[in-house]
């Protein structure tokens, strides 16, 4: 398997900073809930140790170990949306801050492009391929400004934007999984998505993507109410 040793340090540093920024922005959206911050940092540390131990490098396991890092996240999100305490937490979040959180998708896309150049992910996972997620990051501050600051755009526009950006996220997540070196890999066999098997890039599927996904789901639920 291709090693990530040749990737410059600035790529890992940039992505680590982006992950911390994602956690910080979500912390701000919770109105500075220390409990949430401790939970997110603890989860990130746990995932970091898992990757550093080489846990995710066994790509022949069924189900793939890297996907097991996602399972607890989706279960937890499901619990939040279907419990009284979870719904109360969801309804307490700042829609403004959750909208701004999506700006992290710009540095994420830049890091993905660097990883492609160093043959750690396929081109289809970048904005030169099938990944249009950078559009969500670029438009996030614009939506924030005109919906919440200037109040020129309605919440229907905010709802539509969240739905479109959620679909962009689902698109790249599905492509990233099917381009990974797992038993059901469908494409990118010459240059598969191996970066997510290593620290710190494993924090993309286990921390950053869940925060982005959850932010969309929260806003959509709140606006549909």
UniProtKB/TrEMBL annotation:
Keywords: Membrane, Transmembrane, Transmembrane helix. The keyword Transmembrane helix applies. The chain crosses the membrane at residues 6-27, 36-56, 62-83, 129-147, 159-178, 198-220. It comes from the Bacteria. This is Uncharacterized protein. It comes from Emticicia aquatilis.
